[in-house]
Specification:
Helix content is 69%, strand content 0%. The protein is mostly helical.
Length: 192
């Protein structure tokens, strides 16, 4: 009799990505404090031992989620632009920021950083520094008059992020479009 292939066969190199994706879903659903490594392993279809083979603890996995969601795309050099993307890489990146999963992750950074200074607070600092550096590079390359460049590059997105979180919290179905419009208006004012 011929043996059949295992129902779930995976390559070892795919496992870290699968674990990060499972962790992303777990953190979005439960936040940092209530997320459980056992549920992450179960979501990924691996044993707890396999999870610990790739990640030492929940903090390391948490950081990996934020690296994959925010840091890696911004530090890849040039933002990847698919065919349908606008010609402005910042607008493309900001459009992707106002997606349900990204705002849910940002909410964790904002609302759990005080409770869990390490790793949530340190991850927040790292992510915000990376975003700020990317915004600085964008502003320097935008040929804006010096008096139009914000003192704090994060101010370009802070108002729209706050708006997204508030509109989402009150159940506004179109919160993402509202937030995208707000950030586009702010960028347009800079370029006037």
């Amino acid at each position: 009799m011929r043996k059949s292939a295992p129902k779930f066969s995976r390559r070892k190199d795919a496992r870290p990505g699968e674990l990060v994706e499972a962790a992303r879903l777990e953190f979005i659903e439960h936040g940092y404090g209530d997320a459980k490594l056992a549920r992450i392993a179960k979501r990924a279809g691996v044993s707890n031992g396999t999870l610990y083979h790739y990640f030492n603890d929940k903090a390391e996995l948490f950081e990996a989620v934020f690296r994959a969601a925010f840091v890696d795309p911004m530090t890849a050099g040039v933002l990847p632009l698919p065919q349908e993307a606008p010609s402005d890489p910042l607008l493309f990146a900001l459009d992707r920021l106002f997606e349900e999963d990204k705002i849910a992750l940002v909410s964790i950074l904002l609302f759990e950083a005080q409770r869990y200074p390490d790793p949530v607070g340190s991850t927040a600092s790292f992510v915000l520094t990376t975003v700020e550096q990317a915004l600085t590079v964008y502003l320097q390359s935008a040929d804006l008059p010096a008096d139009r460049i914000p003192t704090s590059p994060l101010s370009l997105i802070s108002q729209s992020l706050g708006l997204a979180i508030m509109e989402r919290a009150r159940g506004e179905a179109d919160w993402a479009s509202i937030s995208r419009s707000a950030v586009r208006e702010q960028l347009a004012k800079l370029k006037e």
